Every structure is written in C-alpha cells, then in structure tokens.
TrEMBL record:
Protein name: Probable dual-specificity RNA methyltransferase RlmN
Family matches, as Pfam families: Radical_SAM (PF04055), RlmN_N (PF21016)
Species of origin: Gandjariella thermophila
This protein's encoding gene: rlmN
GO terms of biological process kind: rRNA base methylation; tRNA methylation
Subcellular location: Cytoplasm
Entry annotation: catalytic residues: E110, C364
Length: 371
C-alpha cells in the first residue's frame, strides 16, 4: 500500500465506532427536539445544557433543579459516559499534566493541560491516532484508529476547564483560556465534528463553554480543500499550518500528504483563510538536525512565506521532540538561532516555541496513548 492510499483524505468519515448520541453532539435546537422526544418539556434541554456547559458537570446527582425521574432519563439518553481517565502524568512542578483517556469502546487518546503565569491552555485530540504518517511524529507512526465524536472532543475541554476551576494544577483555582487542536490526529480530516466542536467550545453558555474563538487554534498538515472550506465558516479561530520545510522535495517525505497538495497550494489556501478571516496564520516548523535546518532552507522559508502570506504569518520553530526509535534529533541551539535569524531577515516574524512536557512524552509529536 503506497503512502497516499493509506491517507484518510475523506474529511467526514462515517460514524462507525463512535459513541452514542451526547448533548454536546447537538445544536441547541436539536437538544430541545431530543428532550421532547423523551417526553420532557423542551426547557429541560436548557437546564441540562447549563449543568454541562456552565457548571461543567455531567453528574445527574448534581442537577437538583430537574426532578429525579426526569434527571435520570435525560442523563441516560443525553449524557452517556464518554471518556474515563486512565492516568494523569505531570511535570514542570505540576503545571503540565497529560491525561490518558479511555473511550466507551476502549479507544485510547491523550490531552495535555498546561498552566502558565498568564494563561492556561489545553492541547486536545480530534482523532485517536493519526493517518498522516509523518515519520518524525509518534502519533503519525502509530496510525489512525478512528475519528473522535464532537462530544468526545468537547469533553476534553470541559474536563480541563473543570480542572482549572477546581485548582487541580498548582496555583489555585483558575480559568481555562486557550484551546489548541494540536493533540492526536489531523483536525481537518475529521472536519465536520471539529467545526461543530469549535461551536460548542465557543458558543455562549448554556449553549457552549463560552471560550473566545480567537483563543482557539486549529492545526493542519495542509488539507487544501478543507482549509478553504474552513475559511467559509465565518469563524475567528487561528489556523496553524504544519509546514516543516519550504521545498516540495523534502516535504514529500516529511509530510506525505504533500504528494497530493504542494507547498504553494497549501500556502495559497492559508492566504485565502487569512484574507477571509483577518487572522494571521501560524506556520509550525519542527527543526530537525541536518534534515531541514540548513541556512538556505531558512532563507527559502522566509521568501516563500513573504511571497504567499506577506505579513499575515508567524513562524513557530519547534525544536524536534524525541520519539521512541527515531534516528532524528533536534538541531543544536546555534543552528536554531541562526535559522530564526535568517527567517526574520526575510521580513517574517519567527520565534522558538516554549516546549512543554517532553519528560512525560506530552510535547508536540510525542502523543501516542500507550496504555
């Protein structure tokens, strides 16, 4: 089987294997209809939504404003258990916490909650595994198991918001402020559910969790039709493109989907997104020793980005995080500094990302959900 045959390029795969219907899968109107189907007054949908999205609980025992009999029936039908924590692993003095989750069917996935002095970010998964097959990424090397449902995606955010509220990380109670779709999976290969999840995350309570769209980042390796489709959704989320090299010859190897959509096509789609939304695009660049860190590639990266995106771009250089069995390593610091300098010299903003969670395999490219 060649690399392209193995790639799941259908953006909205069938629902096989996904969990039963959940409140967070449904729009506000669909929740009212679902409640009515159960023989309850439609306003019960708003009560149920208030508990899940505003109070951050799925425990029917806490929903005392709903009669007990109705509460159990509604919870059974619309709040089925989705994700059970298998374990938490922490580093950075507890400020970075990775959670291994088990879904209803035994599928394993991971999310990472990171607390900083001025914000708290959760890195969430949109798929269990990933089918993009990037050779430097542990998730991609493990292959794709299945898409996550909208509710499974949202529940990672809800539990992170509850953890921050309850002071589960050092520093006392706080607020979840940022969401990045940079965990397991290619978000735009699970397109419809990811877009629906963004609405549930960002709609005002009790219709959603009430987090600003501008605080949400959706990453992609470059599924061009899906980038253009996302631009038409009238969202204000930030787009992050995992580019990793500016030349097609190397990118065909590092990011196999590049054999379908070349660098210029990806960047043209990114420019379309920037023009439609007014949001600057992030370009992710994992710097790999003696693979993509040459000075001429830094110069080319700056020129290509300036030509396609002008000032509507920011480069995040990511020192390669080690993965089991990989022969590749991060570039030395002097090489990294020179790479950043040369990109900036071309008039493109470029910084090195603060890497969190490497010690617990929670950093970019390390999520593998090993039990």
């Amino acid at each position: 089987m060649d690399a392209m045959t193995a790639l799941p390029l259908v953006f909205d795969a069938p629902r096989r294997g996904l969990p039963p219907r959940h409140l967070a899968d449904l729009s506000a109107a669909d929740r009212r209809a679902a409640v009515a189907e159960l023989g309850e007054k439609p306003f019960r949908a708003r009560q149920l939504s208030h508990h899940y999205f505003a109070r951050l609980t799925a425990d029917p025992a806490a929903m005392t404003d709903i009669p007990a009999a109705a509460r159990e029936r509604l919870a059974e039908a619309l709040l089925p258990p989705l994700l059970a924590p298998v374990r938490h692993v922490a580093c950075d003095g507890g400020a970075t916490r990775k959670t291994l989750w088990r879904a209803h069917d035994g599928t394993l996935l991971e999310s990472v909650l990171m607390r900083y002095p001025d914000r708290a970010t959760v890195c969430i998964s949109s798929q269990a595994g990933c089918g993009m097959a990037c050779p430097f990424c542990a998730t991609g090397q493990g292959g794709l198991r299945r898409n996550l449902s909208t509710a499974e995606i949202v529940d990672q955010v809800r539990t992170a918001a509850a953890a921050m509220r309850d002071g589960a990380l050092p520093g006392g109670p706080g607020r979840l402020s940022n969401i990045v779709f940079m965990g397991m999976g290619e978000p735009l290969a699970n397109y419809r559910r990811v877009v629906d999840a963004v609405h549930r995350i960002c709609d005002r309570a009790p219709d959603g969790l009430g987090i600003s769209q501008r605080s949400v980042t959706v990453s992609t390796v470059g599924l061009v039709p899906a980038i253009r489709k996302l631009a038409e959704e009238n969202l204000q989320v930030r787009l992050a493109v995992s580019l990793h090299t500016p030349d097609d010859e190397l990118r065909d190897t590092l990011v196999p989907v590049n054999t379908r959509w070349k660098v210029a096509e990806v960047l043209d789609a990114a420019r379309y997104y920037a023009d439609r939304t007014g949001r600057r695009v992030s370009v992710e660049y994992a710097l790999i020793r003696e693979v993509n860190d040459q000075p001429w590639r830094a110069d080319l990266l700056g020129r290509v980005l300036r030509a396609h995106l002008g000032r509507l771009v920011h480069v995040n250089v990511i020192p390669l995080n080690p993965t089991p069995g990989s022969e590749w390593d991060a570039s030395p610091k002097p090489v990294e500094h020179e790479f950043v300098r040369r990109v900036r010299e071309q008039g493109v903003e470029c910084t090195v990302r603060d890497t969190r969670g490497q010690e617990i395999a929670a950093a970019c490219g390390q999520l593998a959900a090993d039990n």
